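fwd from M.: "can u put these together and see what the complex looks like"

so here's what she sent:
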Amino acid sequence: MSSYSPSPHSSTVQRFFQQAPVRAAVIIICLIWTLPSVGMLISSFRSANQIRTTGWWTALAHPFEMSQWTLENYTAVLTADGMANAFANSLIITIPATVIPITLAAFAAYAFAWMRFPGRDWLFAIVVGLLVVPLQMALIPILRLYTNLGLNGTFLGTWLAHTGFGLPLAVYLLYNYISQLPRELFESAWIDGASHYTAFTRLVLPLSVPAIASFAIFQFLWVWNDLLVALVFLGTNPDVAIVTARLTAMVGTKGEAWHLLTAGAFVTMVVPLIVFFSLQRYFVRGILAGSVKG
Amino acid sequence: MAPVTVNPPPSQNTAFSLVRTALSVGIAGLVFMVLRWSFGFLKDRNAPQELLLNLYNWLGLEQAAATLSQSGLNPLTAKLMIAAVALLVGVAGVWILFWVANDLIGQLPERWREIIRPVVFVGPAIMLLTVYLIYPVINTTYTSLTENVLNVPKVVPTQFWESDSIAADMVTGSNITFVSYLINLDQFEIARVQFDNQSMLLIIRSQTVTDRDGVRSRAFTATPLGLRNYQFAFTSPEMRIAFRNNLLWLIIGTSGSVSIGLVFATLVDKIKREALAKTFIFLPLAISFVGASVIWKFVYAWQPAGRSQIGLLNAIVTSLGFDPIPWIIQTPFNTYALIVIMVWLQTGFAMVILSAALKGIPGEILEASRIDGATEFQVFFRIIIPMIRGSIITVSTTIFIAILKVFDIVYVMTSGKFETEVIANRMFVEMFTFRNFGRASSLAVILLLVVIPIMVINIRNLRKQGINQ
């Protein structure tokens, strides 16, 4: 356990054995963390009958026996269970709900960071306070408001709700970043006669791309994975339901049809996993920049 | 230094500046009209088809229009069109609005400019926050105090218009007893009343109401206010289970995720292929609560003893010679089984932050203590943990808040049955199944009360750091 202070005499072999317990522990934890997902992934390619009679791990004994693998579960889930439609709905909900808050939040974050106006400290304190307000507080009033405006069950209502709920985090993350930009940058721009607007569009926005990317990934994953907001404002009507709502409905109606549930679960996870793997760097940076989502 | 354009010098020509102002105002008006139109467009599922029809007719493509009105627009195309308009309006529209507003401000006298510009910059965000979070907090708190007391009509017909004591008249003959007036104005009254041996307030307001046929009229509304929803929340047997479970969730879930995350971060710090190992733990963070619930429901799957177990956990249990356990149904296992899912999801988050904090500890300190003869355990508990205390607290608070609001996992796995109820799930049930908005609101307020200390600390920290300038 002494990789911090390798004594000059220890050979590589010695170090290998010293590290063995640590390595074993790490591997065991990794295995525990991965097995549930692996089981789901493997099962989603097995036939209904096989899943019902034997554990998924038995398939690993002869993985190259191609006859045991099937894509039928996916075809069934995507067509009969409406997952394909839900998948389109999820994309349609998530992309605008991710993009729209960015402009609004960036303008506000710039003003909080670099403009002086009465009430600024108070307003920003409110934004920080709102970061941790439970979403549950907003459901009933917004639901009533939407009933009056005819926004229940519409994409518009859901986009706006996600925009409103995502704004505190967006303003906070972008403020943290924008306020750290060097003051000299702004001063020389202002001396050159640049207005706040020009400084914002020409200087701040291009420089804030990493922070914007971090927020966008957060918001994307949050909206895509959300169930509560979708259930309340969009509903379970298959025409508009998103993947999480669809999968929840499937759990309710086909509790033991594991071949469908596992395939359905994987369909809901594909996009977040792609986003996650391709943009992991920004995601981690966003987490480290302080994420306290309400 | 990034290039910065210089504002054009203000024009001396009044006619020119008048035209310019008119133009800006015109564009602003146009943008507003487009926004209003798009609001209607985005709401209406049939709008894309009508838009296309109009477009075809305008272009003179009568045949295309006829085909479209006959077969109807493909629903997916319609949805995509709505999304495209939303993106266009949400990005370009908002941007143009900012730009026009900024341009208009530029023509104001300097003193006004400095006052109004910040309003334009923060205004839209603050407005949305007000509608979606600030107003709801006030409204939900108010709703949580309203009672579902029988026999008091919510909307009262005009028979009381001439009365000076509407509240007192109104409760006559009902199961509510009038006590005294706190406020007795012409059309606004607050009265103290008694119901079921409990005292509460009755608020009478005159309001415009719309009936089912859309006819608007003036009427009185009577809203009883009291603490009966909270009485339910704190004393009913169902809620007692929910509180106990939430407490278990908070304690075991938070400490579980943070401690496993910390141990893993410490271990992985010492080996090669650190990034790869971390990815395995981190990965569940991208998975939805619903997805995770399905994954774990499969792990917990149960078959009667004697049949082959397809759930991983029961396969292990039976291979060790025990009887299979119905993890999701049998108390007290089931609540813990659900908490495990949360730990599985949140550990990666704790690990990432704590791992970054570990990297911030100077190597010399650890080395010095080891040379002085400290064991690895002493180093971990006496040096590493105190040095990253701040990060541990941040991580714990964030996970604490996430767990406090846990809903999806319980909703998907058990719907709160088999004594697995938690506050947030109960809130959803009260809201949707029972339509009891008062009770549901009181549960939401309880969740808010729990996070208020955290909110205060966050704001105080912000004050301490100070904000720019």
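replying to her w this: Chain B has three domains: 17-107, 148-225, 234-465.
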